[in-house]
What does this fold into?
Amino acid sequence: MSNLSELIPAGGGQNNTDFVADGGITSGKPVILTAAGKAAQVAGSVGSETLGSPVDASGAATIGYGVVGVYDAASGKMVIVYVKTGGVYVVVGTISGTVISWGTPVTAYSGTGDDKPAICYDSVTEQVIIAYRVNPDTGTYVITGKVSGTTISFGTAVAVDSTVNMSEFTVAYNVADSKGLVIYGSQGLSSNSGRAKVITVTGTAISLGTQYNWQTSGYVNNNHYCSTYDSNAGSIVFANQSTANSGKAAVFTISGTNVSAGTFTQYTTGNTTGTSITYDSTAQKVVTASRQTTTTYGYAAVGTVSGTSISFGSPVAFNSSQVAAASVCCAYGGDSANVTNILFAPDTDNYLYYINGTVSGTSISFNTEARAYSDNATSPRAGISTATSGKVLFIINPSSTVGGLIDNYIYGAVLQNVVTTTNLTSTNLLGIASAAILDTATGTINTWGSRNEVQTSLTIASDYYVQSDGTITTASASPAQLIGEAITATQINIKDYTG
It folds into this structure.
C-alpha cells in the first residue's frame, strides 16, 4: 500500500446510485437532481454587459432638477417621478432586453411643483408611494400610485407636516413591518430639525404616524437625503450630508406607527456631497456612493447593520479625478449580477461614466470605469435596479444639446450587467457522473459520501467546488458549492450530505 486512498473502496460502494439522464452527461461532470427525479448535467452561461440607447421619458418636455424612480415588482415596470413647469409628473416604463419604452406622463400634482421628489415601492399594496414638495414652500405631500399597463392612477395626497418648510426628504418602505417612512428636514425656521413619520397605506389611503425628531436643533443640511431598505436587518438606512458636512448614516427602526433612529455614523472622510445609497442583497450590506468635496473624488463605502447600529469599512475611491457635485447615483444590479452600478460625471470632461463594484466583507472593489455615451455635458439623476435579470435603469438629464439628446429632457437607458444563468440551485446538487451517460439512458452517479475517480490534474488535499457553469475548481466564492476534497490527482472524495 502506497497511498491512503487505497483503503477507500472504489466509488464509495453503497453511495453510487443509478439515474436516468435528462440530456447527455459527460464523464466526471457534476449533476443536479431534476423535479422529475432524473440527473442533468450542471450547466450555465455567462452573458455580456450591454448599455442600451437613451429613450425620452418626459414626452418632449423640459424638467426641473429632481428625477427619481423605483421598480414596481407587481407590474414589472419602472416608475419615475419628475418635476417640470406645471406640476409633478409620473411615467411608467417597460423594459425589453436593453430597450425601454415609456407610457404617457401622468400628472400627479397640477400647480407649481418644486424639485426633489421621492418614491418607494409598497410591496404589500403593490403600489408606489410618492413624496413631492409644493413651491413656494407651502408643504410636502405623499400619495399612492397604482400602475396599470403603461399608466398610473393616484390616491388622495396627504400633507406630511404643515408646520415647517421642508428642505429635503426621502421615502422608503420597510417590508418587515409593512410600513413606509418619510424622513425630512426643516430649514430656515426656528424649529430647524430633522423629522420622520411612519406611513401606513390602506387601499389607496395614507395615514401618518407620530412625528419623531432625529435632530432637534441646529441647521439640518438639505443635501441629498437618501434611504434604502436592508432586508437582512429589517430596517431602513438613511444617509445625508450632516450638519458638519460629513456623510453620515443611521438605522431607522419602525414599531407600529412610531419610528426611532440609532446613532449616526460617518461613512466618508471629510466633507461630502451627492450621496446615493443602495442595498446589496447578496452580501447583505449597504453601499453608499458620494463625492468627497476636498479632493472632489468619488468614494464608496460598505455598511453593516447590527441591531440599531451601522458601521462602515474604509471608503474606496471609484474615481480619482474630479467628480461633479450632485452627479453621483448608485443601484444594486440584482443577485443575478451581484454588482453595484455607480453612475457619475467627472468635472474634467462632463461625459457620463459608469463603474461596477463588488462587495467583499466590509470593502468594495471596482472594475474599470466606462463612458456611457459620446454625448458630453450629461448628468445622471437616478439609478434604479429592476432586481431581475441584472438590469439597471439609468435616468439621464442632459444639460446641453449634443449628440441628439435634448437639453433638460430626461432619458432612460438600460444597463444589462453580466449575468450567469445556471440550473444549479442551493438544494439540487446531486453528485458527479462516474462515466458518460447518453440522454434517456441509465448511468451511475457518485453521490454524497462516495468517490469520483475520473477527474484530471487535481491538487491533492485541496477542496473543490462546483461552479455555476458546471466546472469543478478550487474557487469557493458564492454561488460555488463544495463538492469534496481531492485525494489523488484524479479522485475527489465527495463530502457526506451534512458535511
